[in-house]
Amino acid sequence: MNAIIQTKELSRRFGRTEAVRNLSLDVPRGSIFALLGPNGAGKTTTIKMLLNMIRPTGGRATVLGTESTRLGPSEFTRIGYVSENQELPDWMTVQDLIDFCRPMYPSWDQDLCRQLTRQFDLPLSRKIKGFSRGMRIKAALLVSLAYRPELVVLDEPFSGLDALVRDEFMRGLLELSDRTEWTVLVSSHDIDEVERLVDWVGVIDKGSLRVSECTASLEARFRSCQLTLESGGRLPDMLPDSWLLPETVGRTVRFVESVYKEGTGDDFIRTVMPEAREVTVSRMSLKAIFMALARTYRSQGREKEWA
Amino acid sequence: MGLILHLVRKDFRRVRVLLGIWCPILILSVVLDAKIELYLDGRGPAQEVGTPSSAEFDLAVFVLVGLLVVFFDLLMRAAIVSKLVHDDATVGSTAFWLSRPITGGTLLASKATLLALSMIPADIAVQMVTSSHLTGSVSSSEFFLMPVVATAVFMMLAVLTPSLARMAVLGGIIAGVTWGAFLVLSWLAMPLVGGEGIVEAATRSVTQSPPWLLLLGVSIAVICHQYLTRRTKRSLVMAFSGIPVFLLLLTAGWF
Questions:
Q1: How far apart are the first and last CA of chain B?
Q2: Closest Cα of chain A to B87: distance in Å?
Q3: Facing residue for B96 by CB, picked from A48, A54, A89
Q4: A111, A78 in Cβ contact below 8 A?
Q5: Rounded CA gap, A246 and A6, in Å?
Q6: Is the pLDDT of residue B50 over 70?
Q7: pLDDT for A247
């Protein structure tokens, strides 16, 4: 895989807290990669280490083929970064911000800049100070895309945005994606926000990467299964590790199969549970897969705590 | 170089109003300072017979107003430096410049260029013109050193903090520790030089150049270190380790 971002056992401690633990991740060139995880999972810390905003306490990362701690102006002219936490020069108008950023980028595309300004409906003469959250994010995105970066990093760009603004924002990104050769790394705590956008997903939990896979592969191997047991039938004591979140309501058993194989999956279920009848296997949305994984990690965490 | 000038232009737009407010304060401060010197040298306005207290009253007013103006001068310097530095903070990880093709060295060069083109020449020019006009001679090098030291110290405090409020707190802590240690050293030196001798020795110490030159050097070192590495803890250690050396130089002649 041709990776634009690679990390190897990347770690970061803040005092006694391990925010990111031995994170090894590859972001394929040309992908739109969603880094998903609950709040406090380590997404922002990971991104900040990737962009040399904070130093790792262990491991290493390369971005655009350069060690992250050595990223310099030549790399930053190829990276666009937008974050909910980023401070913008509030005292500037949008036009001032454009005039400030333009000379730093040899690849600045003034036509694209004009188009984005129109698309995002940004008033050029208004100061950023008076902008709403959504407008600020749009202004940041404008000056992060107008130079056609190879890599766009978006850190929770949608949190707190209303549905309409989020939709506009998403449509803008999708339109650009059709015309631009770029890689996008977008972090979010909610897959709903990025589901339409992404083709690759990484799930991070308590500072560790749990899944990194293309969405097509995830959708192919995850299935929601429901079956009814014959009267007197019971759930076996040992279930396959790939069956997540098993639950029984009366004689109905539900679980999520995480390594489903088309053609042989149903047979496998019947082999494990011979008393099963009326087996229903249905495809899952990315959101449902993410929720199943999140609930599994949470219960595993609880088990560890109890142990 | 093009990028440095681009950043200087951006910063100048940001601080030009504050610079405009500060310049008259600076002129007033230096004029009052020179006036006070004239009075102390006995070259003030001729006193009328029978009104011996008039000149003393004028001097007292000049001193009080002078102190107030010096306070505002320092306040404006701190505000200008804070705006200049905190807009592109070196502490934390949310500043806009961190994700842009700007290195710490370029940013430092742009800030230093703006200061070198605005505040420092203004300081030197105003002091040279007013002092030579009022006293007939240009003051000594120490006279020019202090504003430069004050500006450098403010910049050092600014690069170690994310805001003006935090800068004031850090400044207070460093000043408090230094002043406390200075008082302790004065008390220890008292048996050696006597009660009145210590006042004289302290006055002589604070008017010497070497401690202030050291303070300037430490401030510049901390500023450069912080801009080039953004390792705030190390920079803080550097800043605090300058205190004992500064005190050593200040009190070297006492023991």
A1: 50
A2: 7
A3: A89
A4: no
A5: 35
A6: no
A7: 85
User: Span A5-29, mean pLDDT?
Assistant: 93
ipTM of this predicted complex? Answer: 0.84
Residue type at position A257: E
Any A CB within 8 A of B101 CB: yes
Cβ–Cβ contact A105 with B under 8 A: yes
Residue of chain A with shortest Cα separation from B162:
A87
- Condensed to tens digits (0 to 9), the pLDDT of residues B130-164 reads 666 655 554 555 567 888 899 999 999 999 999 99
How many Å lie between the alpha carbon of B147 and the closest alpha carbon of chain A? 29
Q: Kindly identify which residue of chain A lies nearest to residue B14, measuring between CA atoms.
A: A91
Nearest to A54 by CA among A64, A62, A40, A44: A44
Two tokens, residue B107: 């940013």
3-class DSSP state of A202: strand
Contacts of B10 in chain A (CB under 8 A): 100
**pTM assigned to the model:** 0.85
Distances (CA, A) of A178 to A91, A109, B70, B238: 34, 17, 62, 52
Residue type at B120 in one-letter notation: I
